[in-house]
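Researcher: I need the complex structure. Ligand is glutamic acid. Inputs:
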Amino acid sequence: MQNFKAILDDICETAKNAKEKGTVASYIPELAAVDKNNFGIHLRTLDGLDYGAGNFETPFSIQSISKVLALSKAMALIGESVWKRVDVEPSGHPFNQLALLEIENGIPRNPLINSGAIVIADILLSHLKNPKEDFLNYVRELANDTNINYNTAVANSEKNTGFKNYAAANLLKSFNNLENPVDAVLDFYFHQCSIEMSCSQVSKAFFFLSNKGGDLKKIAQLTESQAKRINAIMLTCGFYDEAGEFAFEVGLPGKSGVGGGIVALLPDHYIITTWSPGLNKKGNSLLGMLALEQFTTKTKLSIF
Ligand code: GLU
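Model: Output:
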């Protein structure tokens, strides 16, 4: 049995003392105010044991981490039909790149880049009765925590500056790959990204993607095979144009967000979440990636 608590404490200590902490995302003005000295890490093992270090109970803006939860809900609602509207190939380009979308006739490369997530948001808007309320309840149920909320200031901040997302949504609409009005889809998308959760809440919410997530799979209404597919998409597409680097350094399926969070999992063993707001040049949390690299190296627990 490994001493996970000691390993996390050690990683946290290294991160807190790091001189280079990356750059906090400022293109969403509301995120720019977050202190980059925060660092949290939380591990949930499949036997339900929790270990945390640093600011692992502090809520942060989950941003693109929400794309995985939105995808799982869309798959539960319409199953295989999702793949008529979005592909499953890594893009090799930044999360908000538009050129490929035009070349590929409005079919986004995958559901974890912005254009793909906007299509998924459109699916949820079409199929949920009260989309924002129902999606938030779904996330709360997965995490078993009713304290999770949208941060409307963050959602509005992004609405005012999200020109590239408006461009992507308009392009999708022009290719008939959005059923709902652009404004309505983006309002939902900006809200889903603005959800605030702590590392421990994220680890709990992602438990259903581990092989033994039994009861939670029932809440998520996903089959084992659908969960397997989501993990595959996270491995190949979860880190913008740095998915290869993350697989190379860390070796786990996972998803990052520009709020500085990263969730990753080893399907038979654990879910781990880090939060450090400073990002590297590719938009992934600088210290979060280093921390996860240290974790899989020290524990020898990765998929490879
Ligand atoms: N809401 C952000 C955007 O659409 C999410 C980006 C991210 O976390 O990668 O730009």
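Model: Summary of the prediction. Residues 63-64, 95-96, 114, 158, 165, 193, 257-258 surround glutamic acid (CB under 6 Å).
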